[in-house]
Amino acid sequence: MTYDVLAIGRSSIDLYAHEIGRAIADVRSFDAYVGGCPTNVSVGTRRLGLRSALLTAVGDDQVGDFVTAFLEREEVDTQFIPRKAGHRTSAVILTIQPPDKFPLTFYRDNCADRALTVDDVARAPVRDTRVVFVTGTGLSHEPARSATFAAAAAARAAGVPVLVDLDYRADQWDEATAFSTQLRALLTSATMTVGTEEELAAASGSDDVGRGAALLLECGIEALILKRGARGSTVFRPNAPPVDVPPFPIEVLNVLGAGDAFASGFLYGYLQGWPLERAARMGNACGAIVVTRHGCANFMPTLDEVSAFVAARGAAAI
User: Fold this and answer.
1) What is the pTM of this model?
2) For residue 252, with 0-12 CB atoms within 10 Å meaning exposed, 13-18 middle and 19 or more buried, which class applies?
3) Residue spans per domain, the chain
4) Distance CA 315, CA 141 (A)
5) By the 8 A CB rule, do 143 and 115 touch?
6) Percent of the chain's residues with pLDDT above 90
7) Which of 95, 116, 235, 282 is most buried, most CB within 10 Å of its CB?
């Protein structure tokens, strides 16, 4: 295989408020980073030493140049990323008000990554990677919805594992039931899924974690990995009790991007052949590091940083 991870879906320029703790009306400057769940994961896995490629789309604009230049510096393979004439590269504006307020605004009307097509997927190395990573937000609009389904189906047909990040963004959907319907259909071509408790509720239609997990497992996936923030994570499998994976306690600066760091660490462990619980522990470590940092893709940890973080907390290894 040429690649370890092919991530598919959205990308953006992320404008993070430079001043911590201020409401948007009081912010005077922003730091420009790169974001979007699969884009963050492509960088996160690359920094951990995996061979990563990204299939997103950018506009024929300066913001597209900003995103692709950053990815190239990170040595993420960008050769499959199309430019979509007549579309703009997505943008996000965020403010940081610890410990629990992180308001964000998406600018995704007519954005380029929603214009990904089945033909774009056909040109990507779906069959030449060890795992394909797709997201729920990729299902919110056509033609990207069909492209996401096509990628998962092609991977499954080729025997390539598919990890679905639930990635539920309510303002990208007319209603939660539409998200649930599309997401469960996608899971029929997936190997595993990862998400938060809120995303699980939206995907399953149940506020009960156990019931929600059972409903998604009925789609045929091998496991659901639930991200629980300060409580660590939990691994759910069919016909087996859930297994809690302990967290790494830290002081939170910014939770945005932590879930993508978790997915990056989990994928690293999964591709090492580790048990899912150990891979989730790696995810917990990566997520804990990123919540102490200002942004998403730009702040994903390296393998050496994760090793040092874990060792400093009294453990020689994950």
Assistant:
1) 0.96
2) middle
3) 3-10+37-89+109-312
4) 44
5) yes
6) 85
7) 116
